[in-house]
Design goal:
Chain lengths: 307, 120
């Protein structure tokens, strides 16, 4: 897959009827993605990090009341140059990407699987939310992607994680997990913004394989849950074929429930239908995040419970 | 702590840890030590995590000294200890990582590219 730079956003016209305030949505794509980072409470006290950055005239602000770990840094070019980055105190991560780990609601001492873990932002966030306790299996098929995954986890002081290398859709059914995160490969439409390296791309022939993969991963993720266990299925794309249709496939093939998601940011409910295909009424519990309302990467999430 | 070949890995104890043996694992926890010749070298990541608990072999750096180390230069040290690995600490609070003291000169053992990227 080779993304190519373009400022032509016509490809999104097919979503005109499902994205609210479509004109504002298109306008948001012409803005650069804002800088967000997560403060890593495994290695530091988030409130002290904020104080330090503000004292150096680095403009940072909390994006959510009462949460010292999700930070917006407008105008900050590259957080990777900060001392705090080298020390593992902060990790550049899109706001919506952080919300996936929060939505999963992991608890300390639990047994968690991250099926598509690289480059490790969500994995390390899970570890942080678990207070670096319990066990996270961080799975990444491609050896080239396991390297940055390992570096991220090491830099952030994650000590409760092991790295495996199975195809997500074939992850061994040897044990059952309390929680599963299935942040699957997707077409990445949500990452398209002006000047980003992820301007719209399309590769013929890849799409059917992608959709099939996503369906197999969501089923495998569900099958790996304990009874009462929970999974978050997430993508950074707007395409219902990769979002609601995949969740629909799960609901039709497994005894799964959809749980509500409320994270304190503007969200839209999942679609009830798309191109003549009607979805289960429970699909309204899934959520969509759009760049013109959360000023971050476009995102989709479904929270699933195994009965 | 788990040993593999020339490395030692530190992972948080958990009731689930035994379950991980069912899988083929590529890495676990953080790499804490690795054998380099006849020496056992702690990793920078270990030093960053446990530095606050260090009680000796600490080289306190000023910003200027940090910048020298980032360029690959050595800095003189009056530490009255044997030659060996030391903890590099910046401005009396930031545990940066691993240094090596040899004959009164300290050099960083951290990746130069990592250090040079830091803007202080």
């Amino acid at each position: 897959m080779s993304p190519h730079r373009t400022e032509n956003f016509d490809a999104f016209d097919k979503y005109r009827d499902i994205i609210p305030d479509f004109g504002l949505f298109l306008d948001s794509l012409k803005q650069s993605l804002p800088t967000h980072f997560r403060v890593n409470s495994i290695k530091c006290d988030p409130s002290l990090v904020m104080e330090k950055l503000l004292s150096r005239q680095i403009p940072v602000k909390r994006v959510r009341e009462g949460d010292n770990t999700l930070i917006a840094a407008p105008g900050l070019g590259n957080p990777g140059k900060l001392l705090e980055y080298a020390l593992g105190y902060i990790h550049p991560q899109a706001l919506t990407s952080c919300l996936a780990s929060i939505a999963l609601g992991v608890k300390a001492e639990s047994f968690v699987l991250d099926l598509c873990a690289s480059p490790g932002g969500k994995t390390s966030h899970l570890a942080q939310l678990m207070d670096n306790t319990g066990l996270v299996i961080a799975n990444e098929l491609y050896s080239g992607r396991r390297i940055p995954l390992g570096h991220t986890l090491a830099r952030l002081g994650v000590m409760n994680t092991v790295i495996t290398g199975y195809p997500a859709q074939e992850f061994p059914l040897k044990h059952s997990f309390d929680y599963v995160l299935a942040d699957v490969p997707c077409s990445g439409e949500g990452r398209v913004r002006l000047g980003s390296p992820f301007s719209y791309y399309e590769e013929k022939g890849f799409r059917p394989r992608l959709l099939n993969l996503q369906k197999r991963v969501i089923l495998r993720g569900f099958d790996l849950l304990k009874g009462g266990g929970e999974m978050v299925y997430s993508t950074c794309t707007y395409d219902p074929a990769e979002n609601e249709a995949v969740v629909q496939h799960l609901l039709e093939n497994r005894n799964a429930d959809l749980l509500p998601i409320h994270l304190g940011f503007h969200q839209e409910p999942g679609l009830r239908s798309w191109k003549g295909e009607n979805y289960d009424p429970r699909m309204e519990s899934t959520v969509r995040f759009y760049p013109h309302t959360v000023d971050s990467v476009g995102f989709f999430m479904a929270r699933v419970r195994k009965g | 702590m788990l040993e593999t070949g020339q490395s030692w890995w530190l992972i948080r104890r958990s009731s689930h840890l035994g379950l991980a043996s069912a899988f083929k694992v590529f890495a676990c926890g953080i790499k804490a030590f690795q054998r380099v010749g006849r020496f056992v070298k702690p990793t920078t990541r270990l030093m960053q995590l446990f530095g606050p608990k260090a009680t000796g072999s600490i080289v306190e750096l000023t910003v200027e000294e940090f910048r020298s180390l980032a360029k690959g230069e050595g800095i003189p040290s009056n530490l009255q200890i044997e030659d060996g690995y030391v903890l590099l600490r910046l401005n009396r609070k930031y545990d940066l990582g691993l240094g090596l003291l040899m004959r009164g000169v300290v050099r960083s053992q951290m990746r130069k590219s990592d250090l040079q990227q830091i803007s202080i």
